[in-house]
Amino acid sequence: MTSGRFSRRQVIGGAAATAAALTTTSLRSDVPIVHEVAILTFKFEPQHLRVHVGDTIRWTNHDLAPHTATADQFGWDTGEIAKDEIAEVIVTAGMETSYFCAFHPHMKGTIEIL
User: Fold this and answer.
1) pLDDT at 78
2) Using CA atoms, how far apart are residues 72 and 20, in angstroms rounded to an integer?
3) Number of alpha carbons in the 13 Å side-chain half-sphere of residue 22
4) CATH number of domain containing 99
5) Domain residue limits at 43
6) pLDDT for the residue numbered 23
7) Can you tell me the distance from the alpha carbon of 31 to that of 16, in angstroms, rounded to the nearest whole number?
8) Would strands 56-61 and 108-113 be described as parallel, antiparallel, or unpaired?
9) Across the beta sheet with 48-51, what order do the strands follow?
10) Which segments constitute the Blue (type 1) copper domain (predicted)?
11) Cis omega (within 30 of 0) on the bond before 32?
12) Residue 18 resides in a domain
């Protein structure tokens, strides 16, 4: 049974772990990340992404039909993505954040740039 008290070692260890986590989080904006989007059963999964400038968004088509990821105002486009193919876009400041599939306009996704 514990008394509800923490040892000095536990407190120091917890503080060190918290500091390490905060340091890693604060460096996040300097390290680009690849965000995976699966195209499956005529949907983008996930439909909403939270990204940073410099990150990469990678779409992989798992459907038999070809698809695209195309910005609503056509500012960027992956081109046709056939079954089992991959297409990527690098996130830039001011890029359009709503997109759809040019072949299947009911398929929609959004990007939130942090």
Assistant:
1) 97
2) 40
3) 6
4) 2.60.40.420
5) 30-113
6) 38
7) 22
8) unpaired
9) 48-51, 108-113, 98-100, 70-71
10) 37-112
11) no
12) no
Has residue 71 got a pLDDT over 70?
Answer: yes
Contacts (Cβ under 8 Å, ≥6 apart) of 33: 51, 52, 55, 56
CA distance 22 to 43: 35
The span from the CA of 43 to the CA of 47, in Å, is: 8
What number is the average pLDDT over the span 66-70?
Answer: 98
In a domain, 83, yes or no: yes
**Cα 79 from Cα 89, distance rounded (Å):** 11
Assigned domain for 1 exists = no
pTM exceeding 0.90: no
> What is residue 37's predicted lDDT score, i.e. its pLDDT?
98
Q: What is the dihedral of CA 107, 51, 58, 48, to 10 degrees?
A: -20
Angstrom distance (rounded) from CA 20 to CA 13 = 11
What are 12's two structure tokens? 């120091």
Count how many domains the chain has. 1
